[in-house]
Every structure is written in structure tokens, then in C-alpha cells.
Write a structure and sequence with these properties.
heterodimer; A: 191 residues; mainly alpha; Four Helix Bundle (Hemerythrin (Met), subunit A); elongated; B: mainly alpha; two-stranded antiparallel sheet; 22 helices; 2 strands
Chain lengths: 191, 660
């Protein structure tokens, strides 16, 4: 039996990596679309007029911190410390929620100012790229909550650690994608 | 727009002769099947043995059945296109108006690519790859089941307008904007297109991940990468292409959907949108897609030629390198689909040259197969017929392809019937003939009895003759300036005889199809005389032939140890093959439990797609919640396997040998 479990873990983590690569290609297409359309403002505002760099930097720092707490949680998962795992994942999800709230605020502000995704091709691609990342974060948050409940009910079994490993890969992956969004959309857009 | 029904209203229901005809025949077929199942009391059997199965052998058969049904639908569309083009000359406008005609050729293209060829290939890969690598199952049996049900959900969505009304897209098989934007296609046709392809595309993507993990992680001990059978190799490469390019399709379709539903401007002709970006993106997926279709067929030919020449495949390593090169070049040629975009001489030259390069690895493969046959003990069986037919058609179509790869020539041939003839030569002569070769080759493995050879060869001759009678006129018409998607032309052009000839070719092909159906029926009736009792009817070379026909659920009671390429052939050369069995003895086997979750989840996805087509917001939300709940339940399930005890395995194996 242990051999079987080891086998499953290997297959699942490799499969999940392949999945992440496909997700990365999806983001690559969105980045490409953004790169093509970023100048097509159709007389509307450009990134330099719309984005606030300190705001985006704050979002970045929050997300990076959440990645740190997520990584720490995995260390304790392998030490079989259920309480610390739960606490750290709760912090991760709170940071994720804060990030999502900030993103929502930004979108809300832009739409109220009349600069929604229908305004120009540039804004369509901006909302879609950043929004897709936000949607992934939302999925990650739901996933964290589900797994916290599962761990409380069934402890840190090898199957649950496998699930947590996939979740943490997913979360770090989103962090990585955000670094590119921060660089390409916000930094290059405002400077 | 009503809150409860969205845009769906009674006026949308079918009211034209061709939709009503479709509706009535679909309902009658459904009732017929239901009556049969009720009469023979097989509902429960259907559910427990088939619909909830996670066994790739059963899922493979279901893929092939759905693909066969879709082949009839797509062929009917082809016949309607040909009839219109033969009739609609000068004063006569044929029997279809332009709108219907456009919907029919759009559906024909999408169905043949997504639901016929892809369905057949996924079916064959499911059936054969686990057996070839000495595995009992796939890496993720549930995801395999889910992938199939998503494929079926997509297939139903593309046919759904027959039942719920509306229309199908009239925008060509890739729905290029700005035509497919809301401003020019306000109906639900493009939305059906979007959701049908989106759903089945995600199913394909899941399948791609699954087979990559299966092939790379679950091979029998000793089977290094360069000892894998060729069909497994080309399936692996094809699946790698799937995970590289299907995400592009998913995003591109999503962006078109965002344009249509939320008034965004990715591909619109105003507000800074860029329609040519769509064309680029869709062909970055679309060109590799044709190699996804053709690569497994290359693998099938390799197996067939080696087996029926009773020789090792010539140039195995060069074959693997060639297949890898084809896949690498596949992602570097997309722009040759629109040289006329005007990207400039340098860009066009680059893509023209990479396109011509593809002839080199494919040529290597053709020569390898011919060298395999050289001085072999050749049996001209049905699969070999399909292979030889393929060599003729593919070389012919390949040369047409190299011709069009030259941008200067392409400016003349772009969007002409020459192009249509070219890609039909490649997809029919390449992929479909390969599928037929594969089905006739592996049929006894899957069902336990052989197909009638005489009828099969006769069907082949009808196919190949009909094929050339059909498509050579299209090459000529293309040179004469006939464009694709033409629903009417002037009598003075003198094209009608050629169009009629093409139609005659289709009639000849349909005789071939009828013979294939007759062949399966006849072979089933006389199956007692054609039983494959040895499990190795062709003196095969690879591991699938070492199992009984049909193989037990667990494929291998004892996982074989591989020492050479053509593992089973080498085992047969050694005198005492059964000693290993005695040495190891039987062990417990872990098998995936059946689950209906794939059906439930794909069912919610299907309802979601339907709700999106008709803008039924509440239904979309409910079905989305259903999807999420299903995923959570399944992902937290710890009891997904059951154990077949060693004693049970031994009993089943003894029973088998006793039967022999």
C-alpha cells in the first residue's frame, strides 16, 4: 500500500505541473493580447493616466506575503502540525481576500469613471488579463477553505498533504503570474 | 428578454425543413434506442457497465461510437454542400438559400475536425496506448471519463439547435471576426459554436494531460522511451501538442465570447480592436491541431506496416526524431494560413520556408515505411490497403501543400477550392485512412473477432476511387478561380460538370461507407467463425497482442517486463515465455471504481453552455454552482479505488486458460 500511495503522489504532482503549464500558456495568450492592444486606447485614457503604482505595489506585497505564509504552512504540513497548518492557511486566505478586495476596488473605480472594459481595446485586454488572475485567486481561496475543513475532519493524511501540495503550487504559480502583471501592466504602463 | 427563459422563445423553435427534419430524426433515433433498452431491460446494464465506466477500453469504444454517429452527420452536410454546388448555376439558385448553406459548411468543418477525427483518435489512443505500454489503466481514470463526457456534451451542443431552435454559426469553421462579432452575427449561432468548442476543447485538454502522465509515468518496467511502440510515441507527441496549443483555443474563444457578451473590443473593427489578432491566435492553435490529428495516424501506419511486413520498423529512431520535428515545426507555420494578411516579404518568407521544411520529416517517415516493406513478408490485409492508399493520397496532397507554401503562389490559391482539396487530401487521406487502418487492425483485439477481409478491401477501393473522383475536380476548379464556400456561380464559367463529377465521387465514397457498415454487421453475425482465440491474430509485435482478445479489465494479470523494442515479438522468440508467470505469481490489483461523477459534472457544464447561449442567467449560475460542488465532492473523495484480490485474479486467469 505505501508504494501505491507514493506512486499516486508522483502522478498527481506531475499531472498538476502539466496543468499549470497549460494555465501558463493561457496567461501567455492574455499577455500577448495585452501587448498587442495596450496602445489601442481609441482616444480614451492610457495606463499612465489610470494606474496608481503605490496601489499596485501594495497589492504585490500582500500577495508575496501570502505566498510566504503558504510556503510556511507546507513546512508544517510535512511536520504533521495540524494547528499551525490551519492557522497559516487561514492567514494566507485573509491576505488573498485583501488582495482581491483591492483589485475589486480598482476595477470599481475605473468602471465608475467610465473607463470600463467596453471603453477601448486596451481596457478590454487590461480587465481580462488582471480579472483572469483575480478569478484564479478566488478559486484558490475557495480551495483553501475546502481543504481547511477537510484537514480538520480527516487530519494530515498523505492524501491530504498531496492536496495541499497542489494547492500551494497553484498559489505560488499565481504569485509568479502576478509578478509579470505587475511588471508588464503596471510598471511598464506607468513609467 | 425574459428572466426565466433568457432569449429563448417559441419563435426560436425549429421551423425550417432542414431543422425540423433533423429534430424528427433525432427524436425517432432517441426513442428507438430507448425502446430497445427498455425491451431488453438494459438500462441498468448500460449505466453500470458503460456510462459510469472508468476503464479506458470502454471509454475508447464510447468515443468511437459517438465519432461514428458524428461522421454520418458531417457526411450528410458534405452531401448537402455538393448538391447545392452542383445545382446552383446561372438562373437556378439550388435548393438552399445562402444562409443555410453557410451554416452547413460551418457545421461540416467543425464536426469533422472536433467530433469525428478527434473522437476517433482519442478512442484509439484510449483503447491501445495502455495496452502497448503494459499499464492497467490511465494515470487519472476519472479525468478520462470526464474528458469523454465533455466531448459528448460538446457534440450535443453543436447539434442542439435542431431541438431548441435558433441557428448554427454561418461564419466558417473558425468563426473569424469581425463577421463573428455581435454586430454582424447577432443570432445564437456563433454562441452555439463558442460553447460547443469550448466544452469539447476543455475535454481534449484534460485528456492530453492524462495521456502525457500515463505514458511518461506508467510504462512497464524496462520500457525506456526508445523502446516504446511507435503509436505510443506519436500519441505522446500529439498529446504534448494538445497541452501546448489547446489553451490558446480556450482563451481565443473566451475573448470572442467577451466581445459578444460584454461588449469588449478584442476583435471588433472599432474601439481599437484587432480582428487579425484573432486570426493569428486561432491558427496558432489551428495549425498544430492538424498535426495533432495526423501524428497518431503516423503511429498507426508504423504499427501496421511493421506487423504486416513481419519486420522490425525501419529507422525507428529517425522515425521518432521525424515525429518530434513535425511537432516542433507545427507551431512555427501558422502564418501560412494568411500570407495575404500582408505581413511583408520577410515574415511571409520565414513562414513559407518553415512550411516547406515539414516535407522533410514527413518524407523521412514515408521512406521508412517503404523500407520496412522492402524484403518483408508482406500480407496485403485491409490495414495495409489503407496504408498504401494513404501513401498515394498523402504524397499527392503533400506536394500540393508544398506548392501553396510559396507565398507568391498562395496569393493566387488562397481561399480557393485548391486549398479545400489540399486539406481534405491530408485529413481524409492521412488521418481518416489511418483511423480506418487502426480500426481494422485493432478490431479483433477490442471485440474478440475479426472483420470480414473481402468487404473491407472492397470498401477501401470504393473509398479511394471516390476520393480522387471527388477531389481532383476541386484542385482543377481551384486553379480556375473557384473560391471556397461558394453557394452560386455563373453558368458561363463552365464549372458545373466538374462540380457534378465531385458529387459523383461522393456517391462512390458513400458506397464505401455502406460497405463498411455492412462489413461490421456481417462480421458480427458470423463472429463465431472469426473468433480471435489466440489474442494475436496478425503475429503482432507489441504488447497489446500479448493479452487475450478482448483483454480483461485489468489488462495484464502480471505486468510484463520489457527488454527490447517490439517487446511481444521478442518474447515470442524466447522459448519458454510462461516461466516468469510462475516465478512471480499473482498479486492484488488496484482498480478504479466506476463513478457517475463524470456524467454529472459534464451535465452541469452542458447546461451551463446552453444557458450561456440563450442568456439564461439564473440557469448559468445554478449550473456553475453544480459544477463547483461536483468538483469539490470528487476531489475530496478518498475511496476511488477497489482491490481485486490475487486469488480472484488467479481464478479469472485459470478460467481463461481453461477456455483456450
Amino acid at each position: 500500500m505505501p508504494e501505491i500511495h507514493h506512486d499516486t503522489t508522483e502522478k498527481v504532482s506531475f499531472g498538476f505541473w502539466v496543468y499549470l503549464m497549460t494555465d501558463l500558456i493561457m496567461f501567455a495568450v492574455l499577455f500577448a493580447a495585452f501587448a498587442v492592444l495596450r496602445g489601442n486606447t481609441f482616444g480614451g485614457p492610457s495606463g499612465a493616466q489610470l494606474f496608481s503604482l503605490p496601489f499596485a505595489l501594495t497589492e504585490t506585497l500582500i500577495l508575496l506575503t501570502s505566498s510566504f505564509t503558504c510556503g510556511l504552512a507546507m513546512v508544517f504540513a510535512h511536520r504533521n502540525d495540524k494547528n499551525k497548518v490551519t492557522a497559516l492557511f487561514t492567514i494566507t486566505s485573509l491576505l488573498g481576500t485583501a488582495f482581491l478586495a483591492m483589485e475589486f476596488t480598482e476595477f470599481h473605480r475605473l468602471i465608475l469613471e467610465g473607463n470600463g472594459p467596453q471603453r477601448s481595446a486596451f481596457l478590454s485586454s487590461f480587465f481580462t488579463l488582471v480579472g483572469t488572475h483575480g478569478l484564479h485567486i478566488a478559486v484558490g481561496l475557495l480551495w483553501i477553505i475546502v481543504l481547511i475543513v477537510k484537514i480538520w475532519k480527516t487530519n494530515l493524511t498523505s492524501a491530504n498533504i498531496r492536496r495541499l501540495t497542489c494547492l500551494s503550487l497553484f498559489w505560488h504559480f499565481l504569485d509568479l503570474v502576478w509578478i509579470f502583471i505587475f511588471t508588464i501592466v503596471y510598471l511598464m504602463g506607468t513609467i | 428578454m425574459s428572466i426565466f427563459f433568457g432569449n429563448l422563445s417559441l419563435s426560436a423553435l425549429p421551423h425550417e425543413w432542414f431543422t425540423i427534419g433533423g429534430t424528427v430524426s433525432m427524436i425517432l433515433m432517441g426513442l428507438g434506442v430507448a425502446a430497445f433498452l427498455t425491451y431488453t431491460k438494459r438500462w441498468k446494464w448500460l449505466w453500470t457497465e458503460w456510462l459510469t465506466a472508468c476503464d479506458p477500453k470502454k471509454i475508447g469504444i464510447m468515443y468511437i461510437l459517438v465519432a461514428s454517429v458524428m461522421l454520418f452527420r458531417g457526411a450528410l452536410d458534405a452531401a448537402m454542400i455538393w448538391l447545392q454546388q452542383s445545382l446552383s448555376v446561372g438562373a437556378s439558385h439550388g435548393y438552399l438559400d445562402a444562409g443555410h448553406f453557410q451554416q452547413i459548411f460551418t457545421a461540416h468543418g467543425d464536426i469533422m475536425v472536433f467530433f469525428v477525427t478527434m473522437g476517433f483518435l482519442f478512442g484509439l489512443i484510449n483503447l491501445i496506448v495502455p495496452l502497448q505500454i503494459g499499464a492497467r489503466d490511465l494515470a487519472f481514470p476519472f479525468l478520462n471519463s470526464l474528458g469523454f463526457w465533455l466531448y459528448l456534451a460538446g457534440a450535443i451542443l453543436i447539434n442542439l439547435f435542431f431541438v431548441f431552435g435558433g441557428e448554427f454559426a454561418a461564419t466558417g469553421w473558425l468563426s473569424l471576426p469581425p463577421l463573428s462579432e455581435l454586430a454582424y452575427s447577432p443570432g445564437v449561432g456563433v454562441d452555439y459554436w463558442v460553447w460547443s468548442l469550448q466544452v469539447s476543447g476543455i475535454g481534449t485538454l484534460i485528456g492530453g494531460i492524462n495521456f502525457i502522465v500515463t505514458i511518461l509515468k506508467m510504462r512497464a518496467p524496462g520500457m525506456t522511451l526508445l523502446k516504446m511502440p511507435m503509436f505510443t510515441w506519436t500519441s505522446l507527441i500529439s498529446m504534448i501538442l494538445v497541452v501546448c496549443v489547446f489553451p490558446i483555443l480556450t482563451v481565443t474563444i473566451t475573448l470572442l465570447w467577451l466581445d459578444r457578451y460584454f461588449g469588449m473590443h478584442f476583435f471588433t473593427s472599432s474601439f481599437g480592436g484587432n480582428p487579425m489578432m484573432y486570426v493569428n491566435l486561432i491558427w496558432m492553435w489551428g495549425h498544430p491541431e492538424v498535426y495533432i490529428l495526423i501524428l497518431p495516424a503516423f503511429g498507426i501506419y508504423s504499427e501496421v506496416v511493421a506487423t504486416f511486413s513481419q519486420k522490425k520498423l525501419f529507422g525507428y529512431v529517425s522515425m521518432v526524431i521525424a515525429a518530434l520535428l513535425v511537432a516542433g515545426l507545427a507551431v512555427l507555420v501558422w502564418l501560412h494560413h494568411f500570407f495575404t494578411m500582408g505581413a511583408g516579404a520577410d515574415v511571409n518568407a520565414f513562414f513559407g520556408i518553415t512550411t516547406m521544411f515539414i516535407a522533410i520529416p514527413t518524407g523521412v517517415q514515408i521512406y521508412n515505411w517503404l523500407s520496412t516493406m522492402y524484403r518483408g513478408k508482406i500480407t496485403f490485409s485491409q490495414p495495409m490497403h489503407w496504408f498504401l492508399g494513404y501513401v498515394a493520397t498523402f504524397t499527392f496532397g503533400g506536394m500540393a501543400g508544398v506548392l501553396m507554401a510559396s507565398p507568391a503562389a498562395d496569393y493566387q490559391l488562397h481561399n480557393s477550392l485548391f486549398l479545400v482539396a489540399h486539406f481534405h487530401t491530408m485529413v481524409i487521406g492521412g488521418a481518416l485512412f489511418g483511423i480506418f487502418a487502426g480500426i481494422t487492425y485493432w478490431f479483433p483485439k477490442v471485440t474478440g473477432f475479426k472483420l470480414n477481409e473481402r468487404l473491407g478491401k472492397l470498401a477501401f477501393w470504393f473509398w479511394i476511387v471516390g476520393f480522387f473522383v471527388s477531389f481532383v475536380p476541386l484542385y482543377i476548379l481551384g486553379f480556375m478561380g473557384a473560391t471556397r464556400r461558394l453557394d452560386h456561380y455563373d453558368a458561363s464559367l463552365g464549372w458545373q460538370p466538374l462540380f457534378i463529377t465531385a458529387g459523383v465521387g461522393l456517391v462512390i465514397i458513400s458506397f464505401g461507407v455502406a460497405l463498411q457498415v455492412w462489413q461490421i454487421v456481417m462480421s458480427f453475425i458470423s463472429r463465431k467463425q472469426n473468433l480471435d482465440i489466440t489474442g494475436d491474430p496478425w503475429n503482432g509485435r507489441t504488447l497489446e497482442w500479448s493479452t487475450p482478445s478482448p483483454p480483461p479489465a485489468y489488462n495484464f494479470a502480471i505486468i510484463p517486463t520489457v527488454t527490447d523494442r517490439d517487446a511481444f515479438w521478442e518474447m515470442k522468440q524466447r522459448i519458454n515465455t510462461d516461466t516468469e508467470t510462475d516465478k512471480h505469481g499473482y498479486t492484488d490489483i488496484h482498480m478504479p471504481k466506476n463513478t457517475g461523477m463524470g456524467i454529472y459534472l459534464a451535465g452541469f457544464v452542458f447546461i451551463f453552455g446552453f444557458a450561456m447561449v440563450w442568456h439564461i442567467v439564473w440557469l448559468a449560475i445554478v449550473s456553475l454552482i453544480g459544477c463547483v460542488v461536483c468538483i469539490i465532492i470528487r476531489s475530496l473523495d478518498d475511496e476511488v479505488e477497489y482491490t481485486l484480490p490475487a486469488a480472484e485474479v488467479e481464478k479469472m486467469e485459470k478460467l481463461k486458460t481453461g477456455y483456450l
